[in-house]
Amino acid sequence: MLFFPIIASFFAFGALTAVASPAPAVDTVEKRQDASSVLAILSTLQSQTGSILPQIDSLVNSDAATEENLTPLAQQLVAALNSGGASLESLRGRVNQDAASNDEAAEKAAAIYTDITKSLDNVKTKKPHLYPVFPHFGLEAALLKVLLGLELVLFGVLKLVAVLLKTVGGLLKGLGLVLLVVALGL
Predict the structure, then answer these.
(1) Which residue among 105, 106, 118, 146 is least packed, with the fewest CB closer than 10 Å?
(2) % the chain with pLDDT above 90
(3) How many structural domains comprise the chain?
(4) Range of the domain at 78
């Protein structure tokens, strides 16, 4: 009687051992990149926003801004930010970081956020009835996506960006970008 459970457990253990497959051998080890790929993404994002934001400012300053002509620009801005955030997230865990690259990335990100904040403040000041076009397309979520992607790739850079954005912190609050203000700790 006692003999059968012992034999059955040995057979069960043997069956599990035979069926279990070993872990696949790793043929190649993925090489970690330096922070230049992060800086390239931020430079691309800066050039994209650098072409969109002057158009927004020009429309608003010339009193030619309407919902119809701001909507595509808002969509382009959000798309550029989402693309940059996705590119940063794809580098997660694959970038070696150093203090110099963190500083440079923080400066680029802060410049992008400062430019966006100033343009949005211009819209809200001069054409307040048109400002809701931007939050409608998920601008704050896109801004957060870039910041969090940057933090995932270069740990600690969020604090540096927050320090650099202290000067526009009041504008961020005034624009209703509360989640962004909270994420930055402003």
Answers:
(1) 118
(2) 10
(3) 1
(4) 36-184
Percent of all residues in the chain with a pLDDT value above 70, rounded to a whole number:
61
Burial of 159 (C-beta count, 10 Å sphere; 0-12/13-18/19+): middle
Cβ within 8 Å of residue 10, ≥6 positions away = none
DSSP codes, 75-94? HHHHHHHHHHHHHHHHTTT-
97 within 8 A of 154, measured Cβ to Cβ: yes
Coil, helix or strand at residue 95 = strand
C-alpha distances in Å from residue 75, one per residue of 18, 57, 69, 133: 56, 15, 11, 9
Which of 148, 181, 179, 143 has the alpha carbon at shortest distance from 162? 181
Please check whether residue 133 lies inside any domain of the structure.
yes
Q: What is the CATH number of the domain that holds 168?
A: 1.20.58
Count of Cβ atoms closer than 10 Å to residue 96 Cβ = 11
Task: State how far the Cα of 58 lies from the Cα of 127, in Å rounded to an integer.
Answer: 12
